[in-house]
Design brief:
Blueprint: H1 2-7, H2 12-40, H3 43-59, H4 66-79, H5 83-94, H6 100-129, H7 131-152, H8 158-166, H9 178-207, H10 212-231, H11 237-241, H12 244-263, H13 267-295, H14 301-329, H15 336-356
Helix pairs in contact: 2-4, 2-9, 2-14, 3-4, 3-7, 5-14, 6-7, 6-10, 6-13, 9-10, 9-12, 9-13, 9-14, 9-15, 10-13, 12-13, 12-15, 13-14, 14-15
């Protein structure tokens, strides 16, 4: 998206805003989607969201200015708002407590696998046939997913989880307290780093003379390491060790990866930084999503994940937009956004450590 925006004539700052536009509208959409998912079930909102997302991605191929691309990104963010909260709410509804870390790790791996395949494939397609080929293929995959999801989930009693929750005393609890707070602070910190990576790393590699495919390979390294961590034995570490140990260790890993990227002057160093980032992310994600599941009963789980992914979007938006601003401060040091993001993530470690010791409250 960043090179596509630049090719349409966007400045460095506007590139960051275009990339962040999805996350900004997705943020507000997540909050509304949480209410809808709890009120009307999981299936319908996900199907509608897939349809809007597919149409928005197709529209990227037809925009002719950065401003039009900005509008398309905003619609995309709104359309996709129910997808991830809905999917993770379904998992939380049907997985027992002592297996949630493992289940969330596998779900995270299912996110990371296309994140590994998509960027290098997109880079190769863009180099060979232009950016529009990427958008058309992406839209086709979304359309196929819509049909498959609608067929597979037909008749599943998602509303049963809500009916059970309404009869449970704990359902009146709001999705707050140290569990939700810890998960959201952790997520906010690491997604600022994700936003910096998405918006700034492709530009850094272009500045070094690397191809779009090389940029895709960098994100594939991050995704591959995250997959191995989340889908392997480590993915269920939070079920055995508690949620906070992987959370804190993962934060340190993410900060270290960003710091390496901030001082990298070669592609090998960038690859190493992305691998360390992926290790930290793979530790954080299962533990954080399991915390969210435990922070609210099934009848409020959609709202809990809506808040969680609104925080995700906020972090990515700040990281994306902020990276453009920071990069504009000094053209001689492209590593500044990574260093600042590393400092933000590192500062979350003592904060979450303190929250960990607070009394459990909802």
């Amino acid at each position: 998206m960043a090179p596509h925006a630049r090719n349409l004539g966007a400045s460095a700052a506007l590139v960051g805003i275009v990339v962040a536009a999805y996350s900004i509208t997705n943020l507000f959409g997540n909050l509304g989607a949480g209410f809808v998912l709890d009120r009307w079930g999981r299936r319908g909102p996900i199907i509608l969201g897939l349809a809007i997302t597919a149409l928005a991605v197709v529209s990227y191929a037809f925009v002719r200015s950065p401003e039009q691309l900005l509008i398309a990104r905003a619609i995309h963010g709104i359309g996709a708002a129910a997808l991830t909260p809905g999917a993770f709410s379904i998992i939380g509804d049907w997985v027992v407590s002592d297996q949630r870390g493992r289940a969330m790790g596998l779900a995270g791996a299912m996110i990371a696998i296309p994140a590994m395949i998509g960027p290098p494939a997109a880079g190769l397609l863009r180099d060979a046939w232009g950016a529009n080929s990427v958008f058309f293929l992406d839209a086709a995959v979304l359309a196929i997913t819509l049909v498959a999801f609608a067929a597979v989930t037909r008749g599943l009693p998602y509303r049963a989880a809500r009916q059970v929750a309404q009869s449970a005393a704990g359902d009146e609890a709001t999705p707050i307290g140290r569990l939700m707070l810890s998960a959201n602070i952790t997520l906010f910190a690491i997604t600022i780093g994700v936003g910096v990576l998405v918006a700034h790393l492709p530009l850094v590699l272009e500045n070094q003379g690397e191809s779009a495919a090389r940029s895709g390979y960098s994100f594939a390294i991050f995704a591959l390491v995250a997959i191995l961590v989340m889908a392997g034995p480590i993915g269920g570490a939070s079920d055995r060790l508690g949620r906070f140990v992987p959370l804190l260790v993962g934060l340190v890993g993410v900060a270290a990866g960003l710091a390496v990227l901030g001082v990298s002057e070669s592609y090998g160093a960038i690859a190493a930084g992305m691998a360390v980032f992926g290790l930290g992310y793979g530790l954080v994600f299962p533990a954080a999503t399991a915390l969210v599941t435990e922070a609210a009963g099934p009848g409020r789980r959609g709202m809990a994940f809506g808040i969680f992914y609104a925080v995700y979007s906020l972090g990515v938006a700040i990281g994306s937009a902020g990276s453009g601003r920071l990069a504009g401060l000094s053209e001689d040091s492209m590593g500044i956004p990574f260093v600042v993001a590393a400092a933000v993530v590192a500062s979350a470690v003592p904060v979450v450590g303190v929250i960990r010791r607070l009394p459990v409250a909802r």
